[in-house]
Design brief:
Low-confidence stretches: none
Radius of gyration: 12 Å
Number of strands: 0
Oligomer: single chain
Helix content: over 70%
Shape: globular
Number of helices: 3
Mean pLDDT: 81
Largest sheet: none
Order of helices and strands: HHH
């Protein structure tokens, strides 16, 4: 995936994930969460569901972003 596509998908996935998890982040943080989520979740789902193509990547991006936000909300206060 090209860098520009990764940023666009990451921004969309991060926006959806932050709304699903009720977290208010700035645009750079939202994009970062989405891009990291795209890498983590997209990789996992592409490995497991390789036949679904780009759909698996987008669903994985949202899932990964939600997972990262959940981990942050759960453990950040305890550090």
């Amino acid at each position: 995936m090209s860098i520009l596509a990764l940023i666009i998908v990451g921004a969309a996935a991060g926006f959806i994930a932050t709304r699903m998890m009720d977290v208010q982040l700035g645009l750079p943080q939202t994009i970062a969460v989405g891009v990291l989520g795209a890498l983590v979740g997209g990789g996992i789902l592409r490995f497991l569901l390789s036949m679904l193509g780009i759909t698996a990547g987008f669903v994985g991006a949202v899932f990964g972003a939600v997972l990262l936000i959940w981990i942050y909300k759960t453990y950040a206060g305890r550090l």
